[in-house]
Amino acid sequence: MKIGLIIYGSLDTKTGGYFYDRMLTNYMERQGDHVEVISIDFKNYLRNIGDNFSSPLYYRLLKAEVDVLLQDELNHTSLFWINSRLRSRVSYPIITIVHHLSYLATSSPHTKLLYYFLEKRYLSTLDGFIFNSHTTQRSVEYLVGGKLNGVVAYPGRDHIQPSITPREVVLRIYQTDPFRILYIGNLVPHKGLHTLIKALSKIDYRNWMLTVIGNPSISTAYVKSLHDLVYSKNLGSQVSFLGFVTDSELKTHLEKSHVLAVPSIYEGFGIVYLEALGFGLPIIATTGGAAKEIIKHGREGFLVPPENPVLLGKSVSKLMQDLDLLRHMSLNAISRYKDFPTWSESMYKIYDFLKNVI
């Protein structure tokens, strides 16, 4: 197959969505297929609307010699009208990869309305859909208003291979102090790090440490507000911002932490939740999105409402205070991890779907 893939910027961008796209690209190339990455420069949401009127982009896609054109749904701003013009003039199917819908990941009413309108328009221009979760599938079908031709392929579990044993997980619980909380994710508002810091600021009966791993350059204003919040709560000695880390460094932090807390407003899946399960970390996430497909509340972790520091703090406190509960959830996490597919298994599902679409 000859495959086109439209993304913003570089395929090496360090987010879960780009990693998913990269794993799919690598899989298809291992099958002997050619993947042409078509990169669009990301400006900002409003300015990228102008890409729909770009003659060079339109004619590049019109003349593309591909069997199928994949588009990361993140690019909907640039493609909602171009796709409408292409549909009757090209022979190849247009398939989108949906990681999450942007309108569900913002709390601003005006922004949500704009995202809603443009995403709905974009999603009506496609021939097929690749979903990273059943939650994502349901949200797209709800927006479009009916069943769609698509496939659900979870992210794989085996990018960072856990080597920690159940015995070592139990020893970590009873022999390690302080209580170590890990956050992994871009430092952007919808990931909820500010809510986590507010929740932890109310806990003073046990020594704890929060390690923050993720890209600090996307929203510098937000990152400044996080540092200001840490300073105002006098938490400078308990919160560490590490920025990017290598995979081996990430593995070390997963091995020595007690819990992963990423209280996003919305997650289409949450690869970090899955990876953390393999290291025996209970997950504290929110009811916003697909975390409920990964963990069950009270079994492998806790699901709390988004932007609720009170309930978030209570969930962390339960695991700090009740080490038997922490042990139980940690072992459940390891067991649950094994229920998910490998990257090769998931990417094969997409590959098979694409062959049938063509």
Write up what this structure looks like.
By secondary structure, the protein is of the alpha/beta class. It contains 15 helices and twelve strands. A six-stranded parallel beta sheet has the order 2-1-3-4-5-6. Strands 9-8-7-10-11-12 form a six-stranded parallel beta sheet, with helices on both faces. Helix 1 (16-30) crosses helix 15 (343-357), helix 8 (193-200) runs parallel beside helix 9 and helix 11 (271-277) packs across helix 14 (323-337).
What key attributes describe this structure?
358 residues; alpha/beta; Rossmann fold; six-stranded parallel sheet; globular
- Overall CATH architecture of the largest domain: 3-Layer(aba) Sandwich
Which spans of ≥5 residues are poorly predicted at pLDDT below 50?
A: none
CATH topology of the largest domain, anyone?
Rossmann fold
CATH superfamily of the largest domain, please?
A: Glycogen Phosphorylase B
Distance between the termini: 9 Å
**Coarse shape:** globular
Number of strands: 12
Summarize the structure.
This protein has 358 residues and is of the alpha/beta class. Helices cover 43% and strands 16% of the residues. Helix 7 (166-175) runs antiparallel to helix 14 (323-337), helix 8 packs parallel to helix 9 (220-232) and helix 8 (193-200) crosses helix 13.
